[in-house]
Amino acid sequence: MTGLMSCIGHIFLATDMQNTHNASGGGDTIIVTVSGACAGVGKTRLVESLLALCPGAVAVKVQARAEGDVRVVEEMDVTESPQKDTGRYLAAGAGAAFLLSGAPQDLPPAARRLIEAAGARVLIFETNSLALELRPDVAFFVDGPGPIKPCLLYTSPSPRDLSTSRMPSSA
């Protein structure tokens, strides 16, 4: 794991240097996604490790639900929910931790608003439903046993591009 974390640290450094010269949509914010094959595969543990490399980063747990209004809940106190993913993010060094939940079609604009409002240098999203939609600078997929969970691959508009669709022509 130490070698992997060193490699990830180099990825963050390279991404950080690239983004200081990058004028394409994302500004100076580094977007990282962590997705995985199934529940319990280690996504949250990876987010915790990434937060150790980027203390103060904002961490967001995304939950797609079949229906219902979008909810954004900020975790304020790690002692109130130490076993929840958002509580674990705070314990690992997140500057802020949020739960973003809602119907899949409502998540991209909500994620866009959260990215803009957070004003953070690094945002780490634990998400399958928005893994590609966020157009991350760095994306991780944690493999595991069992079938791969379906995810929302393309919606429009992207949280990082207010004017264009991300639907590929081959879809």
Key terms:
about 170 residues; 4 helices; about 20% strand; single chain; alpha/beta
Structure description:
The protein has 171 residues and is an alpha/beta fold. 28% of the residues lie in helices and 21% in strands. It has 4 helices and 6 strands. Strands 3-4-2-5-1-6 form a 6-stranded mixed beta sheet, sandwiched between helices. Helix 2 (43-53) runs parallel beside helix 3. The longest helix has 18 residues, at 2-19. The protein is globular and about 30 Å long. The relative contact order is 0.23. Residues 17-26 and 152-171 have low confidence and may be disordered.
Supply the helix-strand structural class: alpha/beta
Indicate the overall shape: globular
Radius of gyration: 15 Å
CA-to-CA gap between the ends?
37 Å
Order of helix and strand elements from N to C terminus: HEHEEHEHEE
- Strands of the widest sheet, in order across it, are 3-4-2-5-1-6
Strand content: 15-25%
Poorly predicted spans: 17-26, 152-171
Major β-sheet annotation: 6 strands, mixed
Please tell me the overall pLDDT: 77
* Total helical segments: 4
The helix content, as a percent range, equals 25-40%
Number of strands: 6
